[in-house]
Write a structure and sequence with these properties.
With 480 residues, this protein is mainly alpha-helical. The protein contains 16 helices and four strands. The longest helix has 34 residues, at 50-83.
Length: 480
């Protein structure tokens, strides 16, 4: 359809259609004093009003459920690997869900142009239930790995729908506000999720800790289906080339397999997978968007890689590196997420100093703190430094995420919102998968070679430091 409900076009936004897909035209308010443009103040009631507001609430609830489950997996996975004697597959399992999501997001622009959002949502929900069941009832680590793959496919489908919907329903000034709300959704899980999952795991076992959040996700997706008709949609062809994105998923899988194999061939496969995936991610994002949007998307992928590389390893660092309990691991994870949530509520798209550059610098500082903690400090002090560094990482992501996830829609040059949304989701997911492969894979290889936990983690944080420095460079250059 070429139009949508009137509530999605109120205020000073224009309405237009390009390439057979409706989108909301960019409108800015002039600032006579500076001669530049200034963002409109967007009240919360404006983005939650009408049918698009009801859909956004449903999407936020789905994000809440996914946050609870994602935190459960991050907190509990070391316990799962220990119980199932599966540390050899730890790196592969850590990366598998995002690798599967990358493969699906490579196809998402084509699928979202051919099938209505409601059809895609239904398929994603069925796959999610199957993947969650495989992990919960797993008799061996390989089953957890398989369930993670199936859930990753489902997550890729849903991410394409959600990002495209935000791009289609909200304008340039509103999108940072909307993405800031996702930070709010993570606030409660940040406080209670890790500790709650740790308590459930200690009391009832890790299977229950993985199972209960699935109910939240299912209910939220049913609610999304009730209001998904608010998304403007027409069939269209996407310029994104799925072959490159699928190749990225393939080399990520190669690297994950190499990280779990012994000997020089495993190391070679891991190195080839890491380097090839980095090149493929950059190429896919560049070909699917214009030059300006491509620069922002590559920056977004690197920032996500730097932050989530730290986040995914927090529990492993505390439990295996310091010998502390999973409860302290949950404290570190909560600290990172709470900092992100609080700062992300107030995005600063036109601050005097680029908030993205500042945020990326904070992530680098957190990685330096983590490396120092595992190499230089005794366990008691190391725990304090790790929690403080987790807060720095969260602050940096809170500054960067709302802006980088909304900027590609502004500079997309008329690319359909569904395509741009899928590319944003691909950048985040592929960057996260790549970082999980680098971090988890390096740790698995070091563990297999007999290296102790703390030196292994120091090696991992050195690699993530290089990633964060590359993120700073792209953040500075993205607006040129």
């Amino acid at each position: 359809m070429s139009t949508h409900s009137t509530d999605a076009a109120r205020g000073d936004r224009g309405r237009a259609t390009r390439g057979g897909v409706g989108y909301i035209a960019r409108v800015e308010a002039s600032d006579p004093a500076s001669g530049t443009t200034a963002a409109r103040r967007v009240p919360l009631s404006a983005v939650l009003r009408g049918r698009r507001g009801f859909f956004l609430v449903a999407l936020l609830l789905a994000e809440f459920g996914a946050a609870m489950q994602g935190i459960a997996y991050s907190t509990i996975l070391p316990l799962v690997a220990e119980d199932l004697d599966g540390f050899g597959l730890f790196g592969a399992t850590l990366a598998a869900g995002n690798i599967a999501a990358v493969a699906m997001l490579a196809l998402a622009p084509r699928l979202l142009g051919r099938f209505r959002p409601g059809v895609v949502l239904f398929a994603a929900t069925v796959l999610y239930i199957a993947g969650a069941a495989l992990a919960v009832f797993a008799p061996a680590m390989a089953w957890v790995l398989a369930g993670t793959v199936v859930r990753g496919v489902a997550a890729g489908l849903l991410a394409g729908v959600g990002m495209g919907a935000i791009g289609a329903l909200y304008d340039e000034d509103e999108r940072p506000r909307v993405f800031g709300l996702f930070s709010l959704v993570w606030l409660l899980p940040s406080f209670v999720g890790p500790a709650l999952n740790a308590v459930v795991a200690e009391w009832a076992g890790w299977r229950w800790a993985l199972a209960w959040p699935a109910i939240l996700v299912l209910l939220a997706r049913l609610l999304m289906g009730r209001y998904i008709g608010a998304i403007p949609w027409e069939p269209h062809r996407s310029s994104a080339r799925p072959a490159v994105g699928l190749a990225v998923a393939g080399v990520l899988a190669l690297g994950a397999a190499g990280s779990s194999a012994a000997g020089p061939w495993g190391i070679a496969a891991f190195v080839v997978g890491v380097l090839s995936a980095a090149a493929g991610i950059s190429l896919f994002l560049a070909r699917g968007s214009g030059a300006a949007a491509g620069r922002v998307l590559r920056c977004f992928a690197l920032v996500c890689a730097a932050y989530f590389g730290v986040y995914e390893l927090l529990s492993l660092t505390v439990v295996e590196g310091l010998g502390e309990s999973v409860v302290w691991a949950s404290v570190a994870i909560s600290a990172a997420l709470v900092a992100w949530s609080v700062v992300g509520l107030r995005p600063m798209p036109r601050a005097r100093v680029d908030a993205v550059v500042v945020g990326t610098g904070l992530i680098l500082a957190s990685i330096v703190g983590m490396a120092a903690a595992v190499q230089l400090f005794p366990p008691s002090w190391a725990l304090v430094v790790i929690i403080a560094s987790a807060v720095l990482a969260g602050l940096g992501m809170g500054l960067s995420y709302p802006l980088l996830s909304s900027e590609p829609f502004t500079v997309s040059g008329g690319v359909p919102a569904s395509t741009t949304g899928a590319l944003v989701a691909f950048a985040e997911t592929a960057g996260t998968a790549w970082a999980a492969l680098v971090g988890g894979g390096l740790y698995s290889l070091a563990h297999a070679s007999g290296l102790a936990a703390r030196p292994s983690l120091f090696l991992v944080f050195l690699a993530l430091g290089v990633v964060s420095m590359a993120a700073i460079v792209t953040a500075v250059r993205r607006r040129r």
